[in-house]
Design a protein that fits this description.
Elements lengths: L2 H18 L7 H9 L1 H21 L2 E6 L4 E6 L4 E7 L7 E4 L4 E6 L4 E6 L5 E6 L4 E6 L5 E6 L4 E6 L4 E7 L4 E7 L4 E6 L4 E6 L4 E7 L4 E6 L5 E6 L4 E6 L4 E7 L4 E6 L5 E6 L4 E6 L4 E7 L4 E6 L5 E6 L4 E6 L4 E7 L11 E2 L1
Helix pairs in contact: 1-3
Length: 353
């Protein structure tokens, strides 16, 4: 049982005792009936836990890697305030939400390490040495494993999160960066910037299925909710390659802003949001038409991007300004700017819903 559950149960039991204290004068039989009834405790615990779960899911936190301050800012999105800063190794870059949201993993290419953070206590749990230049990270929902792209060794490391142990290494293209995982099909996709390709990997065998040619210098990746479409952000050709994941073939290229870096698909699968570093904008792409329909002015050098589970808030990490922009997805307007730290990057999924 983790700390959050332990505290929850303790609070529930204390509440039950407090509520039932007026009955303390009754005979032991009735006292025992009220205090020790498993059915009553279970019912109340389930009810309170359900309410708490709904409350927590409505108030997500964002984990922002600040490269130039060597830490991670934790932002409470219910009030748009930084509630903690967690020290890591030098220049944290990549980030991933793991273990059903109980952990966040951050990469440091300079330290050649991963940092495992507890999302309840906001404490550093572990440091795992891996590769020569770990950058992009993604975690499997079905297995307690993390997959890390190594920029210098041109490999993906498979790491057991609990044991802090490297289980396997998979060769991919040159300078791998962004990764996404389709847990349903047990397939991993890796963007190879200097090979102008995306590698598809079978996670049951840890073997490459195919290397797919895309645009110039793909960096970030995004996957549709159904897993049928994959999107590669091509930095040097300033477009997005669309890949059919059934045929593993590129089916379209979508022009966006200058130097597209990262992207996220909204929960409906109808829109793609792309950070354009050079333009300092966010491209809004209609995925039914495969066409850019709008641009949103962001902060200086936008990099990481993520969206809340309800699809209402879009978050963008602005490296050049050391902050994050909160964007309303209905109005497509920036509603808040939150100061985080110098060199805010958050390359990967960084919202714990």
């Amino acid at each position: 049982m983790n700390l959050a559950n332990s505290l929850l149960l303790a609070a529930i039991h204390a509440s039950i005792r407090k509520i039932l204290s007026p009955f303390s004068f009754v005979p032991e039989y009735f006292h025992s009936l009220f205090i020790n009834s498993i059915k009553i405790k279970s019912a109340i615990a389930f009810f309170i836990a359900t309410l708490l779960s709904n409350t927590l899911s409505a108030n997500p936190n964002a984990y922002i890697t600040n490269q130039l301050e060597h830490n991670v800012s934790v932002v409470d999105l219910s009030n748009n305030k930084v509630i903690a800063n967690i020290s890591t190794g030098k220049n944290p870059a990549g980030v991933a939400v793991c273990d059903n949201g109980s952990k966040v993993i951050v990469s440091s290419p300079e330290e050649k390490a991963l940092y495992v953070l507890d999302t309840v206590t906001h404490k550093l749990l572990n440091e795992i040495k891996v590769g020569e230049g770990p950058l992009g990270i993604v975690c499997s929902k079905k297995q307690n494993r993390a997959y890390i792209a190594d920029w210098y060794t041109h490999k993906v490391s498979v790491v057991d999160i609990e044991q802090g142990k490297i289980l396997a290494e998979i060769s991919v293209g040159k300078s791998p960066a962004g990764l996404v995982i389709d847990d349903n099909s047990q397939r991993l996709y890796v963007a190879n910037r200097d090979s102008n390709s995306v590698t598809a990997i079978n996670l049951k065998t840890n073997k490459t299925v195919l290397e797919i040619p895309v645009g110039k210098a793909p960096f970030g990746l995004a996957l549709s909710p159904k897993g049928d479409k994959l999107y590669a952000m091509n930095v040097h050709s300033s477009d997005v390659s669309v890949i059919n994941t059934k045929t593993l073939k590129k089916v379209a290229d979508i022009a966006v802003g200058e130097w597209p870096y990262c992207a996220i698909v909204d929960p409906t699968g109808k829109r793609l949001y792309v950070t354009n570093q050079e333009d300092e904008t966010i491209s809004v792409v209609d995925l039914e038409k495969n066409k850019e329909i709008s641009k949103i002015d962001s902060g200086e050098t936008p990099e990481g991007i993520d969206i809340t589970a309800d699809g209402k808030k879009l978050l963008v990490a602005n490296w050049g300004e050391g902050n994050i922009s909160v964007i309303d997805t209905q109005s497509l307007k920036v509603t808040s700017v939150i100061k985080t730290g110098k060199g805010s990057r958050s390359f990967g999924r960084f919202i714990v819903n």
